């Protein structure tokens, strides 16, 4: 669908920075298809720069954890009610909820019941836990846009219209990372053997994994004294916490960075990393990795019972087999992590094989996501006219 003589009116809600990036890509792709695209809802700076109007500041939706959303629940419910009233009174051609499923799915359900076509961009992890949510999704969403192929398979099995659009990060990152430039930028030599440590961005992650990863690094360094280490802190709070931890590891040749995780990953030979979204960037940069995670014993007992997949890391979920080691909870010791990490330095064939597998997945995810998302939105609008 390409019609440069018409206007498309789109309602949109993005709750955090990652959603703002996706929304901006979608808006830019739609602007190539229409003479005028009118966008209103909740938008971040990238979407605002493309002309979107934000009825509420995006920061009001950016809540994390279990306690903060409960404290803010009356405000969040109030914002959702006012958005619902606004869009039902001024119906857009289509509404797109970007991620933030706890906020967006309820809004989408009400708007769809009011006759407004709805799209949800970024699948909730319904395939991993709380599968009963698929019934609400089916009521709320005319069309689901997924970033990962196995997510689309799940929706097809449950009769929810879906398009796998690919991942924008796979579009943005080159197929061959510039390792030399990253090493030069961080002060490493071409011949250095480097292990990157990424213990997570949240305080709880650094509390559980920070000491463990540093102990694993010490274990590796005792066996491979030429190894060097780089640790990018996610923000100022994590930087201060990690700096304090490092006082107990004066012998480690470790470069601590304020941010710059992309450069740290690119420069490294292998990565010890917390399970989470950063594992996808690590895969796309073709870096062998060992994935770990630890949490409170009660939380882990609940989490492990709810989990309905054999794996927790995105590389393994995408490959649908154990491509990289996952060492979780009580199994995660300095020795177990260190032994798996050193395999990548001792066995070049293992590293090369993994990099080929990662390259195949990168190609699979590189689909020009924003254009495919725009095509799916246009097709829905046309079908509903």
Describe what you observe in this structure:
The chain is an alpha/beta fold. It is 50% helix and 18% strand. The protein contains 18 helices and 13 strands. Strand 9, helix 11 and strand 10 form a beta-alpha-beta unit. Helix 4 packs parallel to helix 5, helix 9 packs across helix 12 and helix 10 runs parallel beside helix 11. It is elongated and about 65 Å long. The mean pLDDT is 92.
The total strand number stands at 13
**What is the CA–CA distance across the termini?**
13 Å
Structural class: alpha/beta
Beta-strand residue fraction: 15-25%
Cα-based radius of gyration, to the nearest Å = 22 Å
Sheet with most strands: 7 strands, parallel
Could you outline the blueprint of secondary structure elements for this entry?
Elements: E1 3-14, H1 17-31, E2 34-42, H2 45-49, E3 53-54, H3 67-71, H4 73-89, E4 94-98, H5 101-113, E5 118-121, H6 134-140, E6 143-146, H7 149-157, E7 162-164, H8 168-172, H9 179-186, E8 193-198, H10 203-223, E9 227-233, H11 236-246, E10 254-258, H12 261-267, E11 270-274, H13 278-284, E12 289-293, H14 297-306, H15 314-319, E13 326-328, H16 334-346, H17 348-365, H18 369-384
Parallel strand pairs: 1-2, 1-4, 2-3, 4-5, 5-6, 6-7, 8-9, 8-11, 9-10, 11-12, 12-13
Brief account:
This protein has 385 residues and is α/β, with parallel strands linked by helices.
């Amino acid at each position: 669908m390409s019609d440069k003589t018409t206007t498309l009116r789109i309602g949109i809600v993005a709750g955090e920075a990652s959603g703002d990036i996706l929304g901006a890509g979608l808006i830019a792709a739609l602007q190539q298809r229409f003479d005028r695209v009118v966008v209103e809802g909740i938008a971040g700076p990238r979407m605002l720069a493309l002309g979107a109007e934000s009825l509420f500041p995006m920061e009001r939706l950016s809540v994390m954890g279990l306690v903060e959303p409960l404290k803010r629940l009356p405000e969040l419910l109030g914002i959702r009610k006012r958005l619902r009233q606004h869009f039902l009174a001024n119906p857009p051609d289509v509404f797109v909820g970007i991620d933030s499923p706890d906020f967006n799915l309820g809004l989408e359900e009400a708007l769809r019941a009011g006759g407004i076509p709805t799209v949800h961009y970024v699948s909730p992890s319904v395939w991993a836990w709380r599968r009963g949510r698929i019934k609400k999704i089916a009521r709320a969403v005319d069309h689901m846009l997924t970033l990962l192929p196995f997510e689309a398979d799940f929706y097809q099995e449950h009769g929810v219209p879906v398009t796998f659009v690919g991942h924008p990060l796979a579009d943005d990152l080159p197929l061959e990372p510039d390792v030399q430039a990253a090493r030069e930028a961080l002060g490493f030599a071409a011949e250095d053997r480097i292990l990157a440590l990424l213990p997570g961005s949240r305080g709880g992650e650094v509390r559980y994994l920070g000491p463990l990863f540093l102990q694993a690094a010490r274990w590796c360094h005792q066996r491979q004294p030429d190894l060097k280490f780089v640790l990018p802190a996610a923000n100022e709070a994590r930087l201060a916490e990690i700096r304090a931890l490092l006082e107990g590891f004066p012998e480690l040749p470790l470069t601590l960075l304020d941010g710059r995780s992309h450069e740290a990953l690119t420069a490294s030979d292998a990565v010890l990393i917390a399970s989470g979204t950063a594992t996808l960037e690590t895969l796309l940069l073709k870096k062998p990795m060992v994935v770990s995670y630890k949490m409170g014993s009660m939380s882990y007992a609940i989490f492990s019972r709810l989990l309905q997949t054999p794996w927790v890391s995105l590389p393994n979920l995408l490959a649908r087999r154990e491509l990289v080691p996952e060492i979780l909870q009580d199994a995660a010791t300095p020795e177990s992590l260190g032994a798996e990490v050193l395999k990548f330095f001792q066995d070049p064939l293992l590293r090369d094989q993994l990099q080929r597998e990662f390259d195949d997945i990168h190609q699979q995810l590189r689909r020009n996501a924003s254009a495919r998302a725009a095509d799916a939105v246009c097709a829905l609008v046309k079908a509903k006219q």
